[in-house]
Amino acid sequence: MRVLPTALPGVVIVEPRVFEDQRGFLFESYHAARYAAAGLPERFVQDNHSRSLPGALRGLHYQLRRPQGKLIRVVVGAVFDVAVDIRRGSPTFGRWVSVELSAANKRQLYIPPGFAHGYCVPPFPPEASEVEYKCTEYTRRTMSAGSYGTIPRSRSPGP
């Protein structure tokens, strides 16, 4: 696996090693020891799976008291994924990075605690996307904040 830095320290792209043959492919989507050796968390406490229709916008979500680190990947379709540094006092406060994650590229994005996270599903081709993500803290709805909606097809910044 390769771990690629982004413009925001701590936010990294993970490219797994994919083994392909005539039957299809196989890759490790998570391996605690290997991810720990790469500086990523060994412990995740919750997995989430989300299905979103074309043009859907998810986020930006963040946790106020018990922020979550997230390891995100797409299992169907594609998303335009965004991380925003919302840590007050951080030298990169307010800055953001975006990455295209797709079932085809098999990339993952690790977003550490203290960042807002969101993604949008491109409106074309008209295909729903499914995202799976691991969290370092349990989701507590009363301690979370964010926004949601859809993006008009003519203005979507999707991949």
Description:
The protein is mainly β and 159 residues long. The chain has one helix and 14 strands, in the order ββββαββββββββββ. It has a six-stranded antiparallel sheet, with no helix packed on it. Strands 6, 8, 9, 11, 13 and 14 form a six-stranded antiparallel sheet that branches. It has a two-stranded antiparallel ribbon with strand order 3-4. Strand 3 and strand 4 (24-26) form a beta hairpin. It is globular, with a radius of gyration of 15 Å.
For the termini, the CA-CA separation is: 23 Å
**Could you tell me the radius of gyration in angstroms?**
15 Å
Shape: globular
Q: Which range does the strand content fall in?
A: over 45%
- Tell me about the biggest sheet? 6 strands, antiparallel
Report the order of strands and helices: EEEEHEEEEEEEEEE
The parts where pLDDT drops under 50 for at least 5 residues are: 148-159
Output mean pLDDT: 89
Helix content: under 10%
Protein structure class: mainly beta
Contiguous helical run count: 1
Give the neighbour order of strands across the main sheet: 1-2-10-7-12-5
Number of strands: 14
Topology overview:
Elements: E1 2-5, E2 12-15, E3 19-21, E4 24-26, H1 32-37, E5 46-52, E6 56-63, E7 70-76, E8 78-85, E9 96-102, E10 108-111, E11 115-120, E12 129-135, E13 144-145, E14 148-150
Antiparallel strand pairs: 1-2, 2-10, 3-4, 5-12, 6-11, 6-13, 6-14, 7-10, 7-12, 8-9, 8-11
